[in-house]
């Protein structure tokens, strides 16, 4: 078969240029990436061989090898893992992030550290080889395959694929080093890089033939899985590099959890919480990313039963001797041992988070990154709700920082029997909400909730310290029983008969646009506001669902008026005197639209709104 030449996607060529020339600050990273890929390939073969032993027959001693050729200026990294066929070469080495690479590139900014973290999540570690190589060859044969293949490229315009009858199982990557990368032809330099970045790899990384290619082979790493060592034997740098390997990440771990559970079920967990959000954190499948091993044999990195979805940001490995080595992914879903491991893992992670929460600033950074995900557990995990509520942090009207429920309850006022909250788009907008006015006047703290998940868990009857959660934007305000430290001066209210006349005018004019009109006990400064009735969907949730479903119509809400506000008193007096008039009807609609605007909604009829406002302004100027 003659050589077949294919071109990279235009976006791939651009991305390669960014990777090679802009993002990596340390060129030696290429060796870490290639060794990690080789380790993954061996893990995949070891798992596949559990059900197809023939795949590994005759070459069961899995390892990664390096070979130097100073005369040819080449460095070769090889493994005897799962290997690739022709389609794998095209899909894995000729395409990056096939679904939307162009859009992805548009999102890259000018911060190299953040950009490399983003790009790294799309599996481009292999392409870091072009930082040091002018030409890269991949000789490979897939386990069980009949044909070997050679992929070759200079990392610019495209790549060629030819048959390679001599390619053994696995992959052999030959780097033709650039002149300014000659340092990687020195044994001492390879020792340093492997020791720094790949000492945690559970397979031996062997330098074949020493410096001149004719000497004794030398194993450059400890070749023992990092999680099998005790904490005292592992340095922070080794933990960090293992996190980079297992999480395919470029940031540093925010928290490292390494422990061994002993007793009826024994397992080892080495888990990491990232510092930055993984790129797939909010994808619909909510896939977890902890690898499962049985006696150091890789089983799967897609085990739904290992951690709940609300801990999907956790990376790492779990290794157990109590699961059968030939367990299938399907059997794992109903395995009682795995269920007990899951319980232990979740308990340990939440316990360590509780300890970290004592460092207010560090925990605030974690909560800002993953709080919205962790709160999904309040909706899904009834058993651990109290633990999760204790870990939760919220913005509130108390100040600019985050508060815990423990803090909130300690500041509750005499007569207050609920934890009050309000939901909305942003903290800044919520702080200005008229629905808060009565609570703020009595010094009652209100939680400001802005994550979509808040709409769901707050509606499930949760309690904290026997205190229920109540929305300040739903139902009638229950402020009478709460004692204020300083009694605020209450403005004179409009007479009851005039207020009744105004309410009748508003109901008659607005009709089905409002569910009800009533005097508010929550307003102190604003003239009016809209609230959801008792048992009705919150205004914010209804807006979220409308946006998601593409609907325009909104259900009727309760219009509350402030009987002590100057505008309302003047309108009430006029309504009692005139009963109705075109001017009063205009004012009724303007009052309603004003309440809508404050809630972030457009006027019900923008053209009519503008016309009414013009008429009112004209009347005031005449």
Task: Describe the protein.
This protein is an alpha+beta fold and about 625 residues long. The protein folds into four domains: about 5-220, Heat Shock Protein 90 (2-Layer Sandwich); about 230-360, Ribosomal Protein S5, domain 2 (2-Layer Sandwich), CATH 3.30.230.80; about 395-470, Rossmann fold, CATH 3.40.50.11260; about 495-620, Four Helix Bundle (Hemerythrin (Met), subunit A). A hairpin with a 5-residue loop joins strand 10 and strand 11 (about 265-275). Helix 17 crosses helix 20. It is elongated, with a radius of gyration of 32 Å. The protein starts with a strand and ends with a helix. It comes from Novispirillum itersonii.
CATH architecture annotation of the largest domain: 2-Layer Sandwich
Q: Measure the end-to-end span.
A: 92 Å
Please state roughly what percent of the residues sit in beta strands, choosing from under 5%, 5-15%, 15-25%, 25-35%, 35-45% or over 45%.
15-25%
Shape: elongated
Task: Quickly name the level 1 CATH class of the largest domain.
Answer: Alpha Beta
Largest sheet strand order:
1-6-5-4-7-3-2-8-9
Say what the CATH topology of the largest domain is: Heat Shock Protein 90
Low-confidence stretches: 97-105, 112-123
Largest sheet: 9 strands, mixed
Q: Could you estimate the helical fraction of the residues in percent?
A: 25-40%
Instruction: Specify the structural class.
Output: alpha+beta
């Amino acid at each position: 078969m003659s050589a077949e030449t294919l071109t990279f996607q235009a976006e791939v060529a651009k991305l390669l240029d960014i990777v090679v020339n802009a993002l990596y600050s340390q060129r030696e990273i290429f060796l870490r990436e290639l060794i990690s890929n080789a380790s993954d390939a061996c893990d995949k073969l070891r798992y596949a061989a559990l059900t197809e032993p023939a795949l590994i027959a005759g070459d069961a001693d899995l390892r990664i090898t390096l070979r130097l050729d100073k005369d040819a200026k080449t460095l070769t990294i090889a493994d005897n893992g799962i290997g690739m066929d022709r389609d794998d070469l095209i899909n894995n080495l000729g395409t990056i992030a096939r679904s939307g690479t162009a859009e992805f590139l548009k999102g890259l900014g000018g911060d190299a550290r953040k950009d490399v973290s983003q790009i790294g999540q799309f599996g481009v570690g292999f392409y870091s080889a072009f930082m040091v190589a002018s030409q890269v060859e991949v000789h490979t044969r897939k386990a069980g395959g009949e044909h070997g293949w050679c992929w070759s490229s200079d990392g610019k315009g495209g790549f060629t694929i030819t048959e390679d009858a001599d390619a053994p199982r696995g992959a052999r990557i030959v780097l033709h080093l650039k002149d300014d990368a000659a340092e990687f032809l020195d044994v001492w330099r390879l020792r340093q890089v492997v020791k720094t970045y790949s000492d945690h790899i559970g397979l031996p990384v062997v330098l074949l033939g020493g410096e001149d290619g004719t000497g004794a082979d030398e194993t450059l790493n400890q070749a023992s899985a990092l999680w099998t060592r005790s904490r005292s034997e592992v340095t922070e740098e080794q933990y960090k590099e293992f996190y980079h390997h297992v999480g395919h990440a470029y940031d540093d771990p925010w928290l490292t959890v390494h422990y061994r559970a002993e007793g009826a079920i024994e397992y080892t967990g080495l888990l990491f919480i990232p510092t930055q959000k993984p790129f797939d954190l909010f994808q619909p499948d909510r896939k977890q990313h902890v690898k499962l091993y049985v006696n150091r044999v890789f089983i799967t990195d897609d085990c739904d039963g290992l951690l709940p979805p609300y801990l999907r940001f956790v990376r790492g490995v779990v290794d157990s001797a109590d699961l059968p080595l030939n367990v299938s992914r399907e059997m794992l879903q109903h395995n009682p041992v795995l269920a007990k491991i899951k319980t232990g893992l979740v308990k340990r992670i939440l316990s360590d988070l509780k300890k970290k929460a004592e460092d207010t600033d560090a925990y605030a950074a974690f909560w800002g990154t993953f709080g919205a995900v962790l709160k999904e557990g309040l909706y899904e995990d009834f058993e651990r709700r109290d633990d999760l509520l204790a870990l939760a942090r919220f913005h509130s009207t108390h100040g600019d920082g985050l508060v815990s429920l423990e803090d909130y309850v300690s500041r509750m006022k005499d007569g207050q029997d609920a934890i009050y909250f309000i939901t909305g788009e942003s903290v800044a907008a919520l702080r200005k909400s008229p629905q808060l006015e009565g609570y703020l006047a009595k010094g009652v703290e209100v939680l400001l909730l802005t994550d979509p998940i808040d709409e769901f868990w707050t509606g499930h009857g949760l309690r904290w310290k026997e205190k229920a959660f109540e929305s300040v934007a739903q139902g009638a305000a229950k402020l009478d029983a709460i004692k204020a430290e300083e009694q605020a001066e209450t403005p004179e209210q409009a007479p009851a008969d005039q207020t009744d006349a105004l309410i009748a005018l508003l109901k008659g004019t607005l009709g089905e646009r409002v569910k009800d009109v009533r005097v508010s006990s929550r307003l102190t400064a604003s003239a009016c506001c809209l609230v959801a009735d008792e048992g009705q969907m919150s205004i914010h949730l209804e807006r979220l669902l409308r946006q998601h479903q593409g609907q325009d119509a909104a259900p009727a809400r309760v219009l509350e008026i402030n009987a002590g506000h100057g505008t309302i008193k003047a309108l009430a007096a006029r309504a009692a005197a005139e009963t109705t008039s075109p001017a009063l009807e205009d004012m009724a609609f303007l009052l309603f639209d004003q309440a809508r605007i404050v809630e972030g909604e457009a006027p019900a009829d923008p053209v009519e709104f503008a016309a009414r406002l013009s008429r009112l302004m004209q009347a005031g100027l005449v």
